[in-house]
Specification:
Length: 272
């Protein structure tokens, strides 16, 4: 069986002050994604930063990053519409106008660490409808059981198409904790026939990624989810995290999906 490996090179919060290897410029992000591709990643989940390392929904920065990546490799690009806590929802939703093949859809507002992650119901509906119109595959980010229910309401309203693709995000302060019990409970509640992966934030990253793979999920790796390889050992870039996840999958007798296999597994829309 093949699993899809996603790289998440840069998240919405950490800066180079937290990990000096964090890629933040379009060039650094593209180089990091290419290195991850060489290790088996076939999806790149992207957050962008401005010149001061702040999360940004600037479409020029996003376009430039996408172009640089596309020049280097055929990895599938997934833009984050989560972008960053300081960016307005109305700016975040414009990311899909760049027509990536995939983008995230966060169904609910929530506390997020010391901040607030705003995903108002009318905005989420509008974004889901626009993604459907543009044939962009949504990755549905669920941080707790109520988020799953919210996604299923969007599905019932015809705003989402099969097969649904979920990220079960555990370990955000404000969402469900990163425990094996929570992962199993969320997986049991997923609708039949969906595609899913675990995004394990912080110190349980490796263990929960392993459990997710054993339960039949895909996997994600990168500095967005953890800045450390293990306790006290900073990850020197995304490559060691991606390589470790690829090795983990192979040690469980799972092969890593190619770019073409990924297209089939995720039912991605055809490339333009
Ligand atoms: N870092 C994740 C926990 C998204 O990309 O749409 C939240 C996030 C959402 O970044
Ligand atoms: Zn993200």
């Amino acid at each position: 069986m093949s699993v899809v490996l996603t790289v998440a090179p840069t998240g919405p919060i950490a800066t180079k002050a937290d990990n000096e290897y964090l890629p933040t410029s379009p060039e650094e992000i593209a180089d990091s994604v290419y290195a991850a591709y060489l290790e088996g990643a076939t999806v790149a989940h992207l957050h962008l930063r401005d010149e001061f390392e702040r999360p940004t929904a600037d479409l020029n920065i996003a376009r430039r990053t996408m172009d640089l990546i596309e020049e280097k490799c055929p990895i599938h690009i997934q833009l984050s519409t989560g972008v960053g806590l300081s960016v307005d929802f109305e700016d975040r939703e414009k990311m899909v106008e760049l027509r990536p093949r995939m983008a995230t859809l966060n169904p609910c507002s929530m506390s997020f660490g010391t901040g607030e992650f705003r995903n108002p119901p009318d905005g989420v509906r509008r974004l889901a409808a626009r993604m459907r119109e543009l044939d962009i595959k949504p990755e549905l980010e669920v941080y707790d059981t109520g988020h799953l229910d919210a996604v299923m309401r969007l599905y019932d309203e015809g705003l989402l198409a099969d097969p649904l693709q979920f990220s079960i995000v555990l370990g955000v302060v404000g969402g469900a904790a990163a425990t094996p019990q929570n992962l199993v409970m969320m997986v049991e509640r997923l609708p039949k026939g969906c595609i899913w992966q675990i995004i394990a934030i912080g110190k349980a990253n490796l263990q929960l990624t392993g459990i997710g793979l054993a339960l039949g999920g895909n996997a994600r790796a990168g500095l967005e989810d953890t800045l450390y390889l293990r306790k006290g050992e900073i990850a020197q870039g995304n490559t060691p995290l991606v390589k470790r996840t690829a090795d983990l999958a192979r040690s469980l007798d799972l092969s890593i999906a190619s770019v073409v296999e990924t297209e089939r597994i995720l039912s991605l829309p055809p490339r333009p």
